[in-house]
Amino acid sequence: MASEVEAADPWVPSPADRDVEYIRRWMPFAELANRLYFRVRSSGLGNIPPTGPVLFVGNHSGGLMTPDTIVAAGCFWSTCGPERPAYALVHPSVFAFPGMGRHIARVGGLPATPRMAQQVLEAGASLLVYPGAGEEAYRPYSERHRVKLGRRSSYIRLAMRYGTPIVPVVCLGGHDTLIVIDDGESRARSLGLDKVGVERLPLTYSWPHGLTLGANYNLPFPARIDICFDAPIHLTGFEKAASRTAAAVDWCHATVEGRMQQVLDELVAARQRERARKALRG
């Protein structure tokens, strides 16, 4: 008689998977990638509060690979050290690949779920979130200079509930690592894919796939990324549940997005001035 074999429970990453020694060993590689591959120009690192939990809110580009996360992590480790507990919420699909998933969990990556976010902040650790999700990561190349957080404002309620300062983390250049021709949302709807949970079928140009339909993991093109850690935003006065109304959340969300767009505009203008000076020099 065939014996029944219980299937092993699927592995679910948790904050306990973060490995300080593993991060310390990886820091030289992250620093090398930031210096040579992404040619990172960083600013505002002094705006990171020296102690306590911080809710880092970033804009991101480059599809599933989101090189902005790699850059932000490298800057944080170099400034604050791997001992300071910090995590990043990433798309849960990456954990379907055991090797990559284990690596990401060991450097502080967690599935992007409300439960994970609450666990991190309740433990007094810092957290990096990207409210724009796929809508922003796959916005067309023509919109690469736009912060597009959409209506995902749950991070505001987290900051209000735990009294955590919000530090905007604004990146420029990530969309040069993956060329998004269109976001593919209308294409997905016309094919009925949205009814089975596929929100977009983007048209992109990447390496090694070339011109491709759909979201794929790719090797980012080498591109310069400028990153700015802006001054903390303190949502004081919203500690009580009665203050966390939908109108208040929407106002705070719009304030954060507006601040981030202002910083991105400044980064774009600074790069344009730099190019103009180089052109004048000849």
Describe this structure in words.
With about 280 residues, this protein is an alpha/beta fold. It has 2 domains: about 15-175 and about 220-280, Glycerol-3-phosphate (1)-acyltransferase, CATH 3.40.1130; about 180-220, no CATH class. The chain has helices spanning about 20-35, 65-80, 100-105, 115-120, 135, 155-160, 185-190, 245-280, and strands at about 40-45, 55-60, 85-90, 110, 125-130, 165-170, 180, 205, 210-215, 225-230. The strands form 2 sheets. It has a 7-stranded mixed β-sheet, with helices on both faces. The protein has a 3-stranded antiparallel β-sheet with strand order 7-8-9, with no helix packed on it. Strand 3, helix 3 and strand 4 (about 110) form a beta-alpha-beta unit. The longest helix has about 35 residues, at about 245-280. The radius of gyration is 20 Å and the shape is globular. Residues about 1-5 have low confidence and may be disordered.
Looking at this protein, list some descriptive labels:
single chain; 7-stranded mixed β-sheet; Glycerol-3-phosphate (1)-acyltransferase; 38% helix; alpha/beta
Summarize the structure.
With about 280 residues, the protein is an alpha/beta fold. It contains 8 helices and 10 strands.
